[in-house]
Design goal:
This protein is an alpha+beta fold. The protein folds into 5 domains: 176 residues, Beta-Lactamase (2-Layer Sandwich); 98 residues, PAS domain (Beta-Lactamase, 2-Layer Sandwich), CATH 3.30.450.20; 98 residues, Beta-Lactamase; 69 residues, Helix Hairpins; 150 residues, Heat Shock Protein 90 (2-Layer Sandwich). It contains 17 helices and 21 strands. The strands form 5 sheets. A 5-stranded antiparallel sheet has the order 2-1-5-4-3, with helices on both faces. A hairpin with a 3-residue loop joins strand 20 and strand 21. Helix 11 packs antiparallel against helix 12 and helix 14 runs antiparallel to helix 16. The protein is rod-shaped and about 205 Å long. The two termini are 78 Å apart. The model has no long low-confidence stretch (mean pLDDT 77).
Length: 678
Amino acid sequence: MIRRVVIGALVAVVGLSAMWLAVVYVLGRDQEAAERELAQERLQVLTSTARTFATSLDGIGKDLTLAAALRGDSQSPDVAERELRAMLTVKQQYVALDVRAEQGDPVRVSNGVSEPVLALARPVIDRMIDTARHAPGELHISSGLSSSDDLPAWYRVFAIKPTDRGVTVAGLIDMRLLVTPPDVLRIGPSRLLVMSAHGVPAPASDVDITDALKTEPETGVLHRLLDAARDRRATSVKLDSRIAGDLGLPDAAAVAAAVPVDIDKGTPWVLLVVTSTQALAARHAALVHRLAIDIGIGLLLVLVAAAYVVRNARRSAALREKLRHAELLAHLTEKAEKILDHVPSGVLALDEANHVSARNRWFGDREIIGKPLVDVFAGAPTEHTQVVGELISSARHARTPMTLRRTRLSLFGTEAYVTLHAIPLENVFRDVAMLLVVDDESALQRAEDRVLRSEKLATAGQLAAGIAHEIGSPLGVARGRAEMVLLRGAIDESDAKNLRTIVERIDHVSHLITQLLDYLRPQPSHVQPVDATRSLRLVAELLQPQASSRAVTLDVHGAPEAATLRADPGQLQQVLVNLVMNAIDACDEGGRVTLSALRHADAVVLEVADDGRGIDPDDRAHVFDPFFTTKKRGQGTGLGLWVVAQVARAHDAEIELDTTRGAGTTFRIVWPSVERAS
């Protein structure tokens, strides 16, 4: 891996070096092309300037035609003179105007030009007016007033006679103002030369180029450019840095361009511009410099990248191993979350302040995340929530898991047997410092109670059967002997009465034994569909006298829908009578007993609830034991609830008990419905 990276880095370095050389070569060719483009651009600008000058000449003809119109339309020479002076004020290149009509005196105005210039101009003006009269409609231009290198050489006379008027106009023009080049010719480091037809540089020309032209031989490059322009050929050449330096330009090559400017039919004037290529050279140098920097940065980045790759290659194996462990951890975490969501126990994650930070699905749709623990058990008695809080505090203080085994608590609205586990975490992770596990073991408790009750009933049955056998035989012998004595008749009336009493009591005891045996093995002999609501009303009517004698109210709440169960009607009535009688006995004067039936899934739930004294927690586990009673001696046998449990068991029903000391008791029997029994 490292070897491949090093080879790749070397290849990248060689490639970047070759690229740099190629780009430098291309940039050199690009600079030459840029210089050619600059020369062409200078020629185009000069040509455009020449056209503009030609347009200016056409404007002079129009101005002179306007002057002729002013003279022809004026009523007097004085008015024409004022209007012409106004025209000279606006057009500063006009220094004098001479307007002559076919009849009348000429009108002559000037703007303060020197008298020597006017003296030289008058004969030329007369000649040009005469020429214009013979060729009307054309603009006629004279040569300079002087052929020497002096001021009059820059003055020329322009004359025209409009074809529609009898007026001829001549104007004396200062060519120095007319041929002033635009500022676009001086963009960048450059030198400008405006050469007249007779070889005199215009005042607009730069001193550096006029001085260089004086010292340059006739065969020099500047003279060759002027000669080509005088031959009406636009030309451009490249000047070396030495010539550019002589012209006062920066030490770099320059581009020179020259174009002709036609003033009249004679020798044209010349516009010559020399522009330095310093900007192009600077741009080329900047590009090369930037390219060198970029290449250097690229090489540095390649080396850094190679070092980075080599360094990371050594960490790659470790990172892959960490990734594998992370994936394994994520898999285990997901598995743990699924297990927690599907365990039959409630799991709460608590922070240091006992606020819920997470929960599993056991709690359903309750919105408890972020809430304090007491809000999770909202509605629970204070003493029950205190039990949970004390368990958590003990576990947190001892830093070891604590368990509260199967305790009857009302944490979620109804009492249930729950086992609580408080598990503190050694290392607090984010917002999880404690786990609280809630196991609802009510079903297990009920199953254990049923098993225990069945074992007690079986033991009681075996005991009762033995007692019945052991007592029944001697009682039979005693009854037979008593009847035999009675049949002999050799006793007085008082003894006979005593013997009959003995026989009656023995029969009573035998009936009790027979009834006890029937209780031990009750069998529903006449099972049929029974309306649960009707059975409740019959029992209420049957026991209404007993309830009234105790000032206890009996309420019957029938099922809102058909609630039919399968049972022996007599045994079902026996069960309900026992439960209602116990409820009446448990109530104080003015109490209330409620009988209700409710259809639930495939069962019918029968409830007998009272608002009496309730059952003591210590007695709760023994209420279904035979011969267990809390009533006074002689007021109960302790077989009523035992019989109820036996009958319910024989009908495959389940009996449940909810009681609170001082708040009443509810017996609930879940009896199979007709559909379930069938």
